[in-house]
Each structure stands twice: as C-alpha cells, then as structure tokens.
Known about the structure:
The protein is α/β, with parallel strands linked by helices. The chain has four helices and five strands, in the order βααβββαβα.
Amino acid sequence: AVDRPNTGLLWDIHHPYRYFDEAPETTLSYLDGNIKYVHIKDSVMENGKASYRMLGYGDVPVLDCLKQLNKNGFKGYVSLEWLKRWCPELQEPGVVFSHYINYMSYLIRQI
C-alpha cells in the first residue's frame, strides 16, 4: 500500500459480493482503514448475469455494508454508481437519483 495521506481506496460494494460471494465484513477486513470512497449499486442475477436495479430492488447487502462502514469509523464519501451509459434499458437518472437520496436517508436511519 502507498503510505500517503492523499491516497485511498474506492470500494465498489457490488463486485466482491456479486462476483465472489464475499461478505461485507470480509471485504472490509482487507481494506480496513484505507477506504475513502464507496460506490453503491444494486442488482440481481438473471441468466448468469448481473441485472442492475434501483437501490433496494436487488439483493446486494447495502445496509450491511453501511453498518460495517459505520462500525469501522468510515468518514468518506458514498455515491450511487448508475450504469445507464452501458445499460440503456435502465431507468432515467432523474428518477433514480431522487430514489437514491430517499432510500439512502431511510437506510442511514437504520444504522
């Protein structure tokens, strides 16, 4: 690792869970203390492929990830990663971003 205050890691919660069946606690044990930024997206598996959903409509353990981040004292940034550019069938950003704000507010109250 690079021991510099201006470097850090981006944790995309989707990939370790979806493609490696890795629990948030396990991922965080590898990345502990180095995460500065988190990408959040949700999906389900359909026909062997990740099918993206609005937050809360998939099965990615988003709340568990947020709880673990909070437990570890995370003070960085969390943002929605919406892949409409690569998946044009996804909902429009105006709908999705509004939903993200409301749903994240709900999840944060659950921590």
